[in-house]
Amino acid sequence: MAQVIEFPPIHPGDPVLVSATTYIAYRRCPAQGLGRFRGRYPPESKASFRGGLTHGLIARHLQSGPIDDPEHAAREVIGSTNLNNKITAAGLNRPSLLGPVISEASDLYRRFTKLPVDQFERAEVALLCEVADGVTLIGQVDAVFTGPLLRDWKTGPLGDPLEQLLFYALVWCLQEKTLPRVEAISLQTGESLTQTPSLFELSVVAARVADLVNFVRRSIEPERRAGPWCRYCPLWQECPEGQAALAINN
Ligand code: SF4
Question: Which ligand 1 atom is at minimum distance from the Cα of 25?
Answer without folding.
Answer: 7
